């Protein structure tokens, strides 16, 4: 009887721990990331590298140590719309949880936008600014994806203001974007979408009535207005209802700032109840004789706005790979310290198989994204040959990274089992947030159509393909890949001679194949002694993915090879 009463689970089970006692999470998302550090060190000039390392390390520590708690709090306490005050006065105010403002303040303090827009840096680090800004945005995105949207919109708005407003006006507003004083900081937004068209912006109906040379009054409803409380709003509207399509659209600046107290009504109908990115306010807005300033000439609005859209698509790609990287690391660290069936979870063959796939997808998308960003810097440095290539690459990289992120984060969640599904951790939040990435800034179908148009109108894809062929020719054993690429290009040529519906119907698969070949070529060009640990197995994975006859029986990748591929120091 005594033995029964003294029964203890400890007599049956050796442990009840989820992870081993020495489990540790990352303390710095920059210092730990060998792939990012290696790439940026090669990419930046010595002056930039010396300057930016401290910022990247400081933000990397903040993202790893502070931002999770703030991010989860802001997600669980989304903004609220207050239409009236105690006395019934119409105030139309959006109120954010303190955690949201703290997250935004971290972005301001670490200079994610000032590093691109402060006059000193623009002069001193010319032609490297996009890579500098996006390197900080990537680290930030590993900690928080919701606030990344306002940062993206603000960066895009600054681009438009800088290029298309008179210098005195652009300077007045951009000073508030690169400010180090959070209380003086302005964010930007672009209001495009309406009920009538959605992605079909040419169906927009909001009207702009001219008052004088620069001033107009806006009337009508915008259906999806992200970062709804932005101080700088760029709005597409139609100056002449008789001019249909995007040709009739003009671009307007609506300020909600102390500089202008006479702005007409802008009513928030409601805040959207979104599945993800809940920390950030997305609203339905009705303009009622809202005072606005035209940007550029009438009828040029959509053309001007595409500059902001293209930059936003690169932001979308950076946040996609950042979220995927974060969740991969969450799963990897868990698997390193989780014991199952008598050994570490990382050592199980099927776990290694999945991590090999996920790491390969990440590495391929990482280099595709960053080489595209580098081309944007080169274009702005005057190298015009990159313009046509970017016209093809930007929709391509946006689609590729967004879809990979959604798939990859879900797979990371499964690798962690039930623990990955718990809202106490960050993976469910990243999962919900990632689902918008294939939708925002143009759906995946729109990206395919955009790539098809770019292919038909310019030489960008031909240049990219030639670069890819050069890389394949330089690496031995790629004869089969070259032959298969030429076959895919033959299918692409067919799209030029068939009717439009047939071309659109078949373009998705063709461009997805071409994207993979471009990634393959980029990886061949990027491989060196250190990066071979993650690039070489990724090249092998891509070759298998592109093969018409895939090997079903393969030698397992070892635990040591997986560790080198993930390339992460705890």
UniProtKB/TrEMBL annotation:
Q: Does the keyword Flavoprotein apply?
A: yes
| Acyl-CoA oxidase/dehydrogenase middle domain boundaries | 189-289
Query: What are its cofactors?
Result: FAD
Gene3D superfamilies, per database record: 2.40.110.20, 6.10.250.600, Butyryl-CoA Dehydrogenase, subunit A, domain 3
The UniProt entry, under PANTHER family, shows: ACD11 DEHYDROGENASE, ACYL-COA DEHYDROGENASE
Entry similarity comment: Belongs to the acyl-CoA dehydrogenase family.
Q: Name one Pfam family in it.
A: AidB_N
Please list the residue ranges annotated as the Adaptive response protein AidB N-terminal domain. Answer: 26-183
What's the name of the protein? Acyl-CoA dehydrogenase
């Amino acid at each position: 009887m005594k033995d029964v009463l003294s029964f203890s689970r400890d007599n049956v089970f050796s442990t009840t721990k989820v992870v081993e006692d020495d489990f540790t999470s990352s303390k710095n998302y920059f210092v730990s990331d060998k792939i990012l550090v290696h790439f940026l060190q090669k990419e930046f000039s010595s002056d930039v590298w010396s300057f930016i390392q401290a910022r990247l390390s400081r933000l990397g520590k903040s993202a790893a140590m502070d931002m999770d708690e703030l991010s989860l709090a802001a997600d669980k306490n989304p903004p609220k719309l207050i239409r009236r005050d105690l006395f019934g006065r119409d105030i139309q105010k959006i109120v954010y949880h303190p955690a949201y403002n703290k997250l935004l303040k971290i972005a301001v303090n670490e200079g994610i936008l000032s590093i691109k827009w402060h006059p000193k840096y623009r002069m001193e680090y010319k032609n490297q600014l996009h890579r500098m800004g996006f390197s900080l945005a990537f680290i930030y995105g590993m900690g928080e994806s919701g606030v990344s949207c306002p940062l993206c919109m603000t960066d895009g708005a600054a681009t438009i203001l800088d290029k298309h407003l008179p210098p005195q006006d652009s300077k007045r507003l951009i000073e508030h974007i690169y400010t180090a004083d959070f209380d003086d900081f302005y964010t930007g937004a672009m209001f495009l979408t309406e009920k009538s068209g959605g992605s079909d912006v040419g169906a927009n109906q909001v009207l702009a009535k001219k008052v004088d040379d620069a001033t107009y009054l806006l009337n009508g409803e915008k259906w999806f207005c992200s970062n709804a409380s932005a101080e700088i709003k760029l709005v597409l509207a139609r100056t002449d209802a008789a001019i249909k399509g995007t040709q009739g659209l003009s671009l307007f600046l609506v300020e909600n700032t102390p500089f202008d107290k006479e702005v007409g009504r802008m009513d928030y109908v409601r805040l959207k109840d979104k599945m993800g990115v809940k920390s950030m306010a997305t609203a339905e807005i009705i303009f009622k004789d809202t005072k606005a300033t035209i940007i550029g000439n009438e009828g040029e609005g959509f053309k001007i706005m595409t500059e902001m859209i293209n930059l936003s698509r690169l932001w979308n790609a950076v946040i996609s790979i950042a979220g995927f990287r974060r969740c991969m690391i969450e799963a990897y660290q868990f698997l390193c310290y989780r014991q199952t069936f008598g050994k570490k979870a990382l050592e199980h063959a099927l776990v290694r198989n999945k991590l090999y796939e996920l790491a390969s997808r990440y590495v391929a998308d990482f280099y595709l994204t960053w080489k595209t960003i580098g081309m944007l810097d080169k274009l702005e440095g005057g190298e015009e040959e990159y313009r046509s290539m970017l016209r093809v690459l930007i929709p391509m990289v946006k689609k590729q990274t967004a879809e990979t992120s959604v798939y990859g984060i879900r797979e990371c969640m499964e690798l962690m089992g039930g623990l990955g599904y718990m809202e106490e951790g960050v993976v469910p939040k990243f999962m919900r947030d990632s689902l918008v990435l294939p939708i925002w800034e143009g759906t995946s179908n729109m990206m395919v159509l955009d790539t098809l148009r770019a292919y038909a109108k310019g030489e960008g894809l031909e240049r990219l393909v030639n670069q890819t062929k050069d890389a394949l020719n330089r690496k031995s054993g790629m004869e089969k890949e070259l032959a298969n690429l030429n076959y895919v290009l033959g299918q692409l040529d067919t799209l030029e001679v068939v009717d439009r519906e047939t071309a659109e119907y078949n373009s998705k698969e063709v461009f997805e194949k071409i994207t993979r070949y471009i990634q393959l070529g980029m990886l061949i060009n990027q491989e060196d002694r250190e990066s071979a640990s993650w690039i070489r197995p990724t090249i092998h994975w891509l070759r298998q993915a592109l093969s018409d006859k895939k090997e079903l029986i393969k030698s397992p990748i070892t635990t040591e090879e997986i560790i080198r591929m993930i390339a992460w120091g705890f």
